[in-house]
C-alpha cells in the first residue's frame, strides 16, 4: 500500500520492470520552448555617425540588398530632408521627432503619398536596418480613393487613328490591349512573343517579377509578318541609347533618335528595320510631313 499520494518522477516514467516509457506522440509529444524574444541581427550602423555618414551607409546597404535605383534615390532624398529638419545626430532621434516631422510635412500641404514615402524611408533606415523601432505604432497615411479615368471604346479608337505611324499605333495598342507598363513594353524583344500559345512574356516587370499576358488577336497577324524581318534579340521599339532600360526616349509621345525618315538610319540595322514601321501607316493614319 502506498502511504502517500505522491509518486517519484523516476518511478512514474518507468514500467514496473524498470523499462523507460516510450516518448509521447501526437499532442502529448514534447515541444520546443516558445521563444518570446526575437533575435535580431546586428544593426547596419553602430556608434554615433554624422548625418552624412548615416545616409551614405544606408544607401550602401540598400544597394547591397538590391533595392531599385529609383527607390534608393527617393529614400536618400527623404532621409536627407528628415535629418536636415531635425538638425541633430541621428542616434538621438525619437518617435516623437518622427511624429513632429510628419506633422510638418502635412502642414506643408504635401500629398498623402509623399508623406507615406518619407515614412517608409525612415522606417527602412531606422527600424529595418538599425533596429531602433522609432516608427512603431505609426500607421501609413490614408490616401483618397478616386475613380479611375477610363477611356471609352470610341476614344480609344480615335487615339489609335490619330497616331502618325504604325510604330506608334503598335506601341499604344499593345499597352492598351495587354495592360503592360511603359517600362515593360519598351523592353520587349521579338523572342518574347509566343505565337503558338498566343502569349507575351514580360521579363522582370514591376517588382522584379516575370509574368505572361495574352497576345491580342488584332495585332497577331501584323506581329507575325513583322517578326520575319527581325531576329529574336532585336527590340521591337529600339532606342538610340545603349541602355535599353531607359524608357524616356522610347515612350509613345517622344520619338527615338534615328527613326525619322530619310536620315539617321545608316549606322544601326535596327533603325533601318524600324523605319519600315514608321513609313507603313495604317489606312486611317495620316502620313507624316516630309515623307514621300
The number of distinct helices, counting runs of at least 4 residues, comes to 10
**What fraction, in percent, of the residue positions are helical?**
25-40%
Question: How far is the N terminus from the C terminus?
Answer: 117 Å
- Structural domains: how many: 2
Rounded to the nearest angstrom, the radius of gyration is: 31 Å
Q: How does the overall form come out from the CA principal axes? A: extended
**What value does the average pLDDT take?**
78
Q: Care to count the β-strands? A: 3
Query: In what order do the strands lie side by side in the largest sheet?
Result: 1-2-3
What percentage of amino acids are in beta strands? Answer: under 5%
User: Main sheet?
Assistant: 3 strands, antiparallel
Low-pLDDT residue spans: 1-9, 242-292
Structural class: mainly alpha
Order of helices and strands: HHHHHHHHEEEHH
Give structural notes.
With 292 residues, the chain is mostly helical. A three-stranded antiparallel sheet has the order 1-2-3, with no helix packed on it. The protein has two domains: 51-128, Tyrosine recombinase, N-terminal domain (DNA polymerase, domain 1), CATH 1.10.150; 153-279, no CATH class. Helix 2 (51-64) runs antiparallel to helix 3, helix 3 packs across helix 5 (112-128) and helix 4 packs antiparallel against helix 5. The chain is built from ten helices and three strands; from the N terminus they run ααααααααβββαα.
Brief sketch in words of this structure:
This protein is mainly α and 292 residues long. The chain is built from 10 helices and 3 strands; from the N terminus they run ααααααααβββαα. It folds into 2 domains: 78 residues, DNA polymerase, domain 1; 127 residues, no CATH class.
